[in-house]
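Appendix B, Record 12. Input sequence as logged:
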Amino acid sequence: MKILLANDDGIFAPGIIAMARSLARLGTVYVVAPATEQSGVGHAITYLTPLTCKKIFDDQDKFRGWAVDGSPADSVKLGILELVPKPVDLVVSGINSGLNAGINVLYSGTVAAAIEGAFFGIPSVAVSLEHDIHADFGTAAELATGIIEHLISKKASDTPTNSELFNLNIPTAATRLVKSGGRPQVHVVPLGVRRYGDQYEKRQDPKGRDYYWSFSEPMEPSDDETDMNALAAGHVTITPLQFDLTKRDRIESLAKAFRN
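Logged structural output:
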């Protein structure tokens, strides 16, 4: 199996290093990732400037992967079309430092990289770990690899398709449970689509110029079974995604309105 591994935290991030090591038991891992952090860039693609990439080696002069001077989606597109031997069997994006749950998937470069893989008809998984100064990426990577192995098996779907796309989130509580010998619950849940409490704090720089710092208030809990609630309870979450944004139940009624 040939696995393309990308992220949005950059090729030197601890999450992608841990994921590369763990995924190696499933096949040959090819790392193609942004040269610098690209958090929050969504599905940006570079069109107006050329893309450059550089081979990266570790301290023992062993090839680690390609650093792309572009976005996460650029990295996956370039990897599939130019850098990784064909065919690519699986695309994994992560491990991201910080959860990508709820409507955050629309901003996430991590999820965008996985979506780009699904565009090409390749099973793709975005993996994120709750942000913590003591984040255990090694344990999270092992946990994620086991889940990915199950997701791409025939057990995970009665009618599996090549373009299946999954968003996998791991809370800190789950890695601690694994370290203590426990087994975290895995909940397959929809995205929480309630809006975050987004705000801006207005400040001034030393020259008296205004600037704004974005932050979010924690969401209030709800009774809905969503990724947000399951993660708050310490469970690992999986959400199957799709990139077809068409609101199909409105097509006929809207078309009828224009025919009249």
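DSSP finds seven helices and eleven strands in the chain.
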